Fold these 2 entries.
Entry 1:
Amino acid sequence: MKLLLEISYLGTGYHGYQVQKNAVTVEGRLQSALEKFYKCPLMLVGCSRTDAGVHAESFFLTVEGDLYENMSPKKLPFAITQFLPEDISVNRAWRVEDGFHARYDVMYKEYKYLIWNEPIMSPFFCKRAWHCPLRLDIELMNECAASFVGAHDFSAFMAQGGSAKNTVRDIKYLEVEREGSLVTIKVASNGFLYNMVRIIAGTLVDVGMKRIPLGDIENIIASRDRKRAGPTLPPDGLYLSRVVYKNDKFFKN
Amino acid sequence: MKLLLEISYLGTGYHGYQVQKNAVTVEGRLQSALEKFYKCPLMLVGCSRTDAGVHAESFFLTVEGDLYENMSPKKLPFAITQFLPEDISVNRAWRVEDGFHARYDVMYKEYKYLIWNEPIMSPFFCKRAWHCPLRLDIELMNECAASFVGAHDFSAFMAQGGSAKNTVRDIKYLEVEREGSLVTIKVASNGFLYNMVRIIAGTLVDVGMKRIPLGDIENIIASRDRKRAGPTLPPDGLYLSRVVYKNDKFFKN
């Protein structure tokens, strides 16, 4: 049997999602909680790999193994809570077809990047947003964002260490919003290159502070040159916020 | 010279605001940061004492001592940041008259109590809101809240250990709001008895879960009997959110 789980986590205490030797990871914690509950070895497949310090409002993974066939998946979130630390939650669970793949069947994912845009940093957003003390020009950032939408070769927005051969990605939307002191960059795409969201966020911020002229953006994208784009912003402000699958038929309940 | 400071803090790591022996407190941290900066002993007076684990969006205190006369108070928040931990911020500073008292000159204070009202707790609100898995009836809670407004003897809402002789307080407003998964109780008063906000919140929650009938509230207040009111909710959900002073003339800039 295969279950699909939606989880949330605060990434601050973890070396990313994926299991690593000698490091505390979200997947590691989740696997040990699930194996304590099901009392058998399990196979987990996540929708993505988030880096150390990155958070997830909505992350999906499948669990396979000798699961309790006659327990309703609706009960799992409540049953598993006691085995999990407070910074990870299982929100929902569904049975899925054996053919379902948590990563390959993703249609698009949405990330948010949060910026505390005040001269003094808020203690409530420490490790949960990046601090930008200079006032950002949101209109300018949104004009810039429009150039990213659609299918482009995003090599200029990929960190060294990225292994992608095909560097074309199709950005569905990229929007910047201010709500009080908080600026949120929201981006959805069929896939992301290594550190792509954090470099796009850094480039938008450079435009919003008038360090990069708006007119340069299309050339920067076309250049495929990482050095011409803005800085990679820290992981603290990044949240995986939404995952949309190709086909709802996979969801059995 | 006397300065008035507005600060924010995440209370999770502190044994409350006020200095105590052998315990880490917000005041202790602040005093050592300010004394490092001003290089002299200083006298701090806070607007309130918050308990262990309680947060403050807006807390005021005065600082007296051999302060740099010719430094604009506007620069202090930036200058002091490097001496403070990330969970405390100095937001603003003003010169005030020597006669100003951070506690006695308060006209009223506002507290918020945050409740995560979903079956499963959010990792993002852990230690920052109380978790109530049962759906609360906000309309019922607001009807109940109306009975608290005005001057009443709030003995039924004072924890043991409270030292107040006069137990009459004048509640200016008490309101309950739902925004998505979060329920916020907001209360302003000229003063609060020991644990008063947390007991009022616990009583409103009992009404919202239909454990206490709405019709009983006026009798519970009139009874002056702590046993008849609801439970004291945990400190994690409590925020000092606003302090209004009697007279703006104290503020010199």
Note: Chain A has five helices and ten strands.
Entry 2:
Amino acid sequence: MIPPDHPRYRSLVVRERLAGSARKGIVSWEGLTAHGRGEAFDYLLGERTTASALFAERTAAALLLSARHPVISINGNTAALAAGEIAALQKACGALVEVNLFHRTERRVKMIEDLLTVAGVDVFSGKAERLLLLSHDRAWCRRDGMYSADVVLVPLEDGDRCEVLAGMGKTVIAIDLNPLSRTARTATLTIVDELTRALPQITSACRDLSQAGEERSPVPVDNHYLLSEAIREMTARLSHALD
Amino acid sequence: MIPPDHPRYRSLVVRERLAGSARKGIVSWEGLTAHGRGEAFDYLLGERTTASALFAERTAAALLLSARHPVISINGNTAALAAGEIAALQKACGALVEVNLFHRTERRVKMIEDLLTVAGVDVFSGKAERLLLLSHDRAWCRRDGMYSADVVLVPLEDGDRCEVLAGMGKTVIAIDLNPLSRTARTATLTIVDELTRALPQITSACRDLSQAGEERSPVPVDNHYLLSEAIREMTARLSHALD
């Protein structure tokens, strides 16, 4: 039990929820340390959606809506933290949602698919194959899902796989709190924001754009600028931290 | 199995070791996310001992050697990562070593004490009491151990407890990769370095100082300066990260 007088009560509660997901095998233990790394960067961001992140989220919405075959690829951490938010985003942009894990077992895939389904996601299930040019479990995905997608949203993605997906010519939208990670630098568009803040923003922008009914023009992306802005925000907070 | 071609093979192996410790209950799941947070800050430090951290490590050695009753307080993460390094430091400075946990059960305390003993630590075991002005498990420690120490080394410490120990007039030496944490700001001396790099440096400095046989004069500490230096290092790396 977390004592309510602990100053960081809210984030400690989130962590206990993650711990519960770890206990069930939904989040791997390495997923827990990955979450911790994100927490540190979020702390440096000021635990808020920055202006540049909001711009990136709206750009992501435009990319998803103008895609021929958009796919959202879910891992354990994303499912544990944001199953409901993924369901809302799917409804707003029509993307396929498929489960792909770094540490893959049929049991874990099924558990995570069930968790998503309960939260309202229409999960693109079924036969996965070793299709990506990667070692080990990371090569697996579904031929008619992520493999043939033109736009993929990959929250909390492994750097190797992000690089491979981008190398295949896909438009890769990453959500990653670390602007220096390989994922951040190799994605087409990186949203430097916390997952449960980012997803509702993308969903909201999808709804706005759908309503506006604008014609789909090519979406310009300057990811280097967006990453620089995120770094600038973090540097500013660090520099003034002891003031 | 981590594929050896993964660019961050070494740190992934460390993480799997932590995962093994988590499986045994030595490291709590919240301990795994705490480790991840440290990894992020270490990444910003450049994963090396900075000049200011080395200075802090040598200062820590002087403080431990000149203490009347030095105590090292060990938690699950510290034991999992650095049991051997703790044993070496104990031999070099003569401190008591006691186990204190945020999530305390008798079984976990015993498991961690055994792990330390196997690694060569002389563990100060025995009856703990609720002695510190803190809620829940964090209040527990040993009357003739940490409670009556004049100098305590607290690697990877909770901010609340660090603040309380410092408030009791103890000289608190923290090892924390986050220079902005409450622990970092409330400790008497903060070593902003990774645990398994820091401990051998302190040990080495203890041996050097012991050999030199210098008279024990009061040890000056400017922790604000040390934290500013750590922040300066991180800011510099961040600013040039996309160059």
Note: Chain A has a mean pLDDT of 92.
